[in-house]
Design goal:
Strand order of the largest sheet: 1-2
Strand content: 5-15%
Radius of gyration: 31 Å
Mean pLDDT: 80
Helix content: 55-70%
Number of helices: 5
Distance between the termini: 64 Å
Shape: flat
């Protein structure tokens, strides 16, 4: 042993050198088992399972998640205070998100229109080329989509 290893003190957070992992050695030799799922994944899988329900005399096949939401809403409509208290914050959040989304889309749409208009003006130098006409057609389609509110976040 060298002088440095003789001065090594064993204690909290400082295990004996012979029991420490060697370089390149892992404490979990086998690793995570394949196909093991975390709780979130298992919950998602269970909630996405389909069940058969009968609504208004019709057989429907819906997810368990949708069935839970429908039951909660139906209870709230019947006046169940717990169901109302559970749904109300989510309803308010959804309304606020929708308003924010509309404001953002309106501002983005205006900005996009200006960018595309400037882009088309700059293309006038390449007027008559095949690439310019293709690009103009694509740009015009994008402008129409933006005006219709079909902007899906693609560039």
């Amino acid at each position: 042993m060298t002088e440095n290893s003789d001065k090594y003190e064993i204690g909290y957070g400082r295990p004996p050198r012979n029991s420490q992992f060697k370089p390149g050695q892992s404490g979990n030799k086998k690793g995570r088992p394949k196909n093991s799922k975390n709780t979130y994944t298992m919950l998602t899988d269970v909630l996405e399972q389909k069940i058969n329900i009968k609504e208004n005399g019709k057989d429907l096949r819906i997810s368990k998640k949708l069935a839970m939401i429908m039951q909660l809403v139906n209870k709230a409509v019947k006046g169940d205070v717990k169901a109302i208290n559970s749904l109300l914050p989510h309803m308010l959040m959804a309304d606020a998100k929708e308003e924010d989304k509309n404001k953002i889309l309106a501002s983005i749409s205006q900005d996009d229109r200006e960018i595309i208009t400037n882009y088309l003006k700059n293309l006038s130098d390449f007027e008559g080329t095949e690439e310019a006409s293709k690009t103009k057609e694509v740009s015009k389609k994008r402008i129409k989509k933006v005006k219709k509110g079909e902007n899906n976040g693609t560039q």
